[in-house]
Amino acid sequence: MALVLMCGQPCSGKSTAAACLIKALEQQHGTPVILIDEPSLNLDRNHSYQDMPREKNLRGLLRSAVDRAVSKDSIVIVDSLNNIKGYRYELWCLARAAGILYCLLHCDVGELKCREWNQTRQQQGLPSYNDNIFDDLVRRFERPDGRNRWDSQLFEINPSIEEIHEGSQAIVKAVAFLSGDRTLMGLRNSQVLQPTIATQNVRTSETNSLYELDKATQEVVSSLVEAQPQGVGGVIQSVPIGEGLPVISSFV
């Protein structure tokens, strides 16, 4: 049905916004929602972002989880940094291949406020980022741009200015987009991504096609052997070898 990416600096309120979005979707539409984040995969954020190989592994695990979860029957929300535009493009491609809606909810909070919130969480003993990891992630953050197809439809919310709740404007617009509501002013019509030839799965033959082909070949050989003493010519027998496969004709 849809893939929603949360995006923003570390400690910018993404998880709170994701929880409000899930609650709004479930209350208003009863739509099944699947949340994918680091805790759901038993991953520690500081450990996962400690160096580039571990961060690459983290993105791979999240991408695999998204690939398994996306469908036309549920909404998948990815609550992670999603800070690299190339990675957002990869997830957009998964949505396009599945033929579903796609949008991005950006928690647009400045670095100083995010740092303050992260330090507060450290003091309270809550999950937070080490200072060196926080600095590195802030430095490498690639801000989403609604003009890019992998960043559109883009909804922005600033938790440092407004309190996040189900009635927040960005949450309301996102819910309307995901439900196909066209009555909201200033909101474009919901557009389902269309798979291309490159992203469509190639139809595979039946698992027993080799057996059927061998069986048909034996029938053709047998019909030829039987027809040789009779001295007849032309088509002796046509043998179908399965749906979508050619018909084998034996000649003498």
Kindly describe this structure.
- The protein has 252 residues and is an alpha/beta fold.
- The protein is built from 8 helices and 7 strands; from the N terminus they run βαβααβαβααβααββ.
- It has helices at residues 14-29, 45-48, 52-69, 85-98, 111-123, 131-139, 169-179, 209-227, and strands spanning 2-8, 33-37, 75-79, 101-107, 154-157, 235-240, 247-251.
- A hairpin with a 6-residue loop joins strand 6 (235-240) and strand 7.
- Helix 1 crosses helix 7 (169-179).
- The chain is elongated and about 95 Å long.
Radius of gyration: 27 Å
Topology pattern, helix = H, strand = E: EHEHHEHEHHEHHEE
Strand order of the largest sheet: 2-3-1-4-5
Category from helices, strands and their pairing:
alpha/beta
Instruction: Give the biggest beta sheet.
Output: 5 strands, parallel
Give a short summary of the structure.
With 252 residues, the protein is α/β, with parallel strands linked by helices. The protein has eight helices and seven strands, in the order E-H-E-H-H-E-H-E-H-H-E-H-H-E-E. A hairpin with a 6-residue loop joins strand 6 and strand 7.
